[in-house]
Each structure stands twice: as structure tokens, then as C-alpha cells.
Amino acid sequence: MILDAQINLRTSIVSRTPDDVLSKAxxxxxxxxxxxxxxxxxxxxPSRRKEKCIALEDSAAILYRMERDIEKTRRQFGGGxxxxxxxxxANVDNDRDWREPGLVVLNVSPGGGWTSLRINGLEPFGxxxxxxxxxxxxxxxxxxxxxxxxxxxxxxxxxxxxxxYQIHRRQYKHRDFFGWMGYxxxxxxxxxxPDAHAVxxxxxxxxxxxSVPGVFDPCDDxxxxxxxxxxxxxxxxxxxxxxxxxxxx
Length: 249
Description:
Elements: E1 2-10, H1 18-33, E2 43-44, E3 54-55, H2 59-77, E4 87-90, H3 95-98, E5 103-109, E6 114-120, H4 129-144, E7 148-156, E8 162-164, H5 165-169, E9 181-184, E10 198-202, E11 206-210, H6 221-236
Antiparallel strand pairs: 1-6, 1-7, 2-3, 2-4, 4-5, 5-6, 7-8, 9-11, 10-11
């Protein structure tokens, strides 16, 4: 049983102002809203206890909260201008809906060098979930222009064990993983990646690659082996980033 999926986009670490981050988030959420009705409303999540969610339309309140959080971080760590803004958004604004399938969380963190989109509980998206995830990946790539992107999937095995591709089934320990689908900043085609389900060029930026048809199940050995073959091909083209050059596993 597939429980959730998360797209991860890696970028260079850079400090951005609250205005920059909010502008990026508004662009992303507007694009995501076209993919499914569950992604039409977004809320900034609280950064302190007893705070409430803020509707994304209330830009003044969100900017104030980001500025306040930056100042708090600078006071705590004695830093200067190096601490930039980040924004955590969700498509729900209460604890009850947070526990329901269809939760979507968008994290824009240029200071951390990454942006992510997580969907908890895929069922409300129906049979279109694969195309929705692909559309989300492509739109995220267009806006963020990452150095690399990958997609982790969490599932429950027939024995009721939780399985994450990134943690339990990944092929390399010294390279990044690719998972269900991802992005590389190079033009590649199907002849170079014969085990890929599909490849999609993205506005001259690079290529989004889908590993398997349908929804990737990290508990399925045959699907995992197909992803591994794709990752081996990506590594052979130096398109699967090395995360630990000293490790040979």
C-alpha cells in the first residue's frame, strides 16, 4: 500500500529575502493549482506554538512572520545577513484535515538548498496521481531550476512493514537516489536510458525522467530492480550526484 510520495529538488544554498521566497511560492502554488482542486488553497504553517495558519493570500502577515523568524534565528546564532527566508505551506489549515489523505506540503527553503513537495495519502487524487506527480515535477523544475531532483515513496508491505525507497531500497549509499521520477540538468533521450518509462525535456533546462509506469511501489522487487537499472545508467553518465566521494558502496 502506497502511503505518500515526496519530490525533492536540490539547489545551491543561497540566502533569499522574504519577498523573494513568497514570490517563488506564489508562482509554484498557482501552477500546482492547475493540476488538481486539492491544491487550490494554501496556508503558511505556524512556526510557534499557539499560532494559526495564515492563508497564502494574506501576504503581509506571511512576510511579517518570515521577517520575525529570520530575526529570531540571527539573535540565536549571532549571524548576519546570511540567514534567509523559508516558507512551509500546506493545503489544509487545521489538525483534523492534517491527518486525512490528500495532505500536500510544500517547503521552499533556498537557504537549505532544497525545495520539496510531499503528498500524504494518494487516494483522493485517484487514477490521475501519476500524471499529477509528473506535472508537479515539471512545474517545480521550471520555477526552481534545480541541480537535481528525485522522488521518494513510502509504502506499507504485505507484512505491514513501512518501506521508504530512500532508506530501505536505494541502490547507492555514496550517491543520491532517483526513485519514482526525477530531474537531471542535461538533455537525455530514451535511447540513452532504455529502462526509463518516459523522458520529458523541460524548456531547455534539462530532462524529467519517469522510472516506472503508474505509481512506484518500493515493496515491489521488480519495480525496484528497474529503478536500480535506471540509476546505474544515470551514474554511468555522471548524472546521479555523488554525496560521499570517500564511500565505495
